[in-house]
Amino acid sequence: ETGVTQSPTHLIKTRGQQVTLRCSSQSGHNTVSWYQQALGQGPQFIFQYYREEENGRGNFPPRFSGLQFPNYSSELNVNALELDDSALYLCASSLRVRGNEQYFGPGTRLTVT
Amino acid sequence: KNEVEQSPQNLTAQEGEFITINCSYSVGISALHWLQQHPGGGIVSLFMLSSGKKKHGRLIATINIQEKHSSLHITASHPRDSAVYICAVRWDTDKLIFGTGTRLQVFP
């Protein structure tokens, strides 16, 4: 049991809509990373939050944005959804100490039609 | 060229066989992870290593930092080992770069 939870499990949206995905990190973890995994591909880094501040971003457009709250839970927001945004979205939490592991949540599967 | 490459992409085996999955990377890393992903998506961390070798049950992971190469071995494979195995390297604190995964199917 990793302790990282994500909601919702599955989501269907139409092109142009906005979506918010949520992640509750494992107790004691202060860092949350978000990843997008397209079908048949490895996960791609979207961004990371550490103590409520963005701490690095992958090659994703600004319509992908995030938040981290004082309890270290996090949201991923995607505006103006495109068909290619259909993917499994994974969050992973960790304690920002060198050598610590990331613990992954079960993911949210987003389908954009 | 991808920064993390795995081979093979797909692997089938008979129950009991010894399995090896390889991972090569081209960037400087602080650690390498082996992850397991079952259908449905959830990812489980199997190993995190930065040197040498680690063993957990029937799973063994090795890394050669000089050659930028790691291997994951499964001894006495079992159908429940069927999953996608992903290699990911850690750079710049906690950020991970993932390989595309190796899909393993073990038949009884």
Helix content of chain A: under 10%
The low-confidence parts of chain A are none
Overall average residue pLDDT of chain A? 91
Tell me the distance between the termini of chain B.
Answer: 36 Å
Largest interface: A-B, 30 and 25 residues
The gyration radius over C-alpha positions of chain A equals 13 Å
The overall strand count of chain A is: 11
- The outline of chain B comes out as globular
The overall strand count of chain B is 11
The SSE order of chain B reads EEEEEEEEEEE
- Helix tally of chain B? 0
In this structure, how is the largest beta sheet of chain B organized?
Answer: 6 strands, mixed
Overall average residue pLDDT of chain B: 91
Pattern of helices and strands of chain A: EEEEEEEEEEE
Give the assembly state of these chains: heterodimer
The share of residues in extended strands of chain A comes to: over 45%
Shape of chain A: globular
Write structural notes for this entry.
The complex is a heterodimer of chains A (113) and B (108). Chain A has strands at 5-7, 10-13, 19-24, 31-37, 44-50, 53-57, 64-68, 74-78, 87-94, 103-104, 108-112. Chain A has 113 residues and is mostly beta strands. In chain A, strands 2, 4, 5, 6, 9, 10 and 11 form a seven-stranded mixed beta sheet that branches. Helices cover 0% and strands 61% of the residues of chain B. In chain B, a hairpin with a 4-residue loop joins strand 7 and strand 8 (69-74). The chains are: A mainly beta (113), B mainly beta (108). The interface between A and B is medium-sized, with 30 and 25 residues.
